[in-house]
Amino acid sequence: MSLADSQADPGAPTRGRPRSEAVERAIVEGVMKLLEDGVPLAELSIERIARTAGVGKATIYRRWNGKEELFVDVIRAAEPPDPELPGTSMRDDLVAMLEQLRRRGVMTRSSALLHNVFAQMKSSPRIWRAYQAAVVEPRRRLQVEVLRRGQANGEIRADVDVELLNDIVVGPMLLRSVMRPDADLPEGLSEEIVDTLLEGLRPVS
Q1: How many other CB atoms are found less than 10 A from the CB of residue 64?
Q2: Distance, CA of 141 to CA of 108 (rounded, Å)
Q3: Is the pTM of this model over 0.85?
Q4: 62 pLDDT more than 50
Q5: C-beta of residue 17 within 8 angstroms of C-beta of residue 45
Q6: What are the two backbone dihedrals, phi and then psi, of residue 81, each rounded to the nearest 5 degrees?
Q7: Are 33 and 4 in contact (CB under 8 A)?
């Protein structure tokens, strides 16, 4: 799967003036094309992106503050969209969030280009900080919120540190996705991880 095959999240907020979705898509796809042509992230200037997308530099700056913000949106377009949480239980919400991580890992493995882009992004402190602030931290806060809600509902013990528990929940999936590229990421893994952990976290009557 290539970056150009990915679709931007249709539920994402629209920046700029009305009817700008086609322009924004052209810009994002322009970045994707340059990446697929082998242009490193460090060499992607706003001028070059604008020329490839067929727009003016001012058009890009009306929608993004700079390259870092634009690159974050490009990566988000390449990743699986954030899930709609079922809201039926803490367990179901955790499974939905882990499933997004699993699918992201599968996509990264199936695309050498996407894997390379993530590696380049991590080597660029400014882009990596922007991605952490815009994507990783909001996801982490939502995960902790789900755990706190489950704790308040009596689904897990009241004495558990939910910040630590969040690391324990996402840790196995991240380990398999990032640290063990040879490890399986089968369907059903999200449910297996969550159910295994919750078995030992339920309140004792």
Answers
A1: 19
A2: 24
A3: no
A4: yes
A5: no
A6: -65, 150
A7: yes
